[in-house]
Amino acid sequence: MFFLVLAPDKPGMLDRRLEHRQRHVDYWVGQGDALKVAGAMLSDDSADATPVGSSFLIEAQDEVAARALLAADPFMTEGVFSGDFQVQPVRPAIGVWRGD
Length: 100
Description:
The chain is of the alpha+beta class. It is 29% helix and 29% strand. A 4-stranded antiparallel β-sheet has the order 2-3-1-4, covered by helices on one side.
């Protein structure tokens, strides 16, 4: 099953986010095929927008498993994420998930 996840940061976490970004990226790369696409949520649509959270399309057995993946993310364990995740089951139908 696929899940669309929106994971907002706590306010004022930009420096902490940048400090732990590589561990966060390495963690998700290490999840292999579970991660379909991910990226930062931005403060606005300007060229100098700042990250204010993360978004993911992940594949997991169920919502409990999806939430377990999020709980182990370094952004969660290091206090960057607010913990107020939106985890929505989805059924992808069209489009390209990854360009790499």
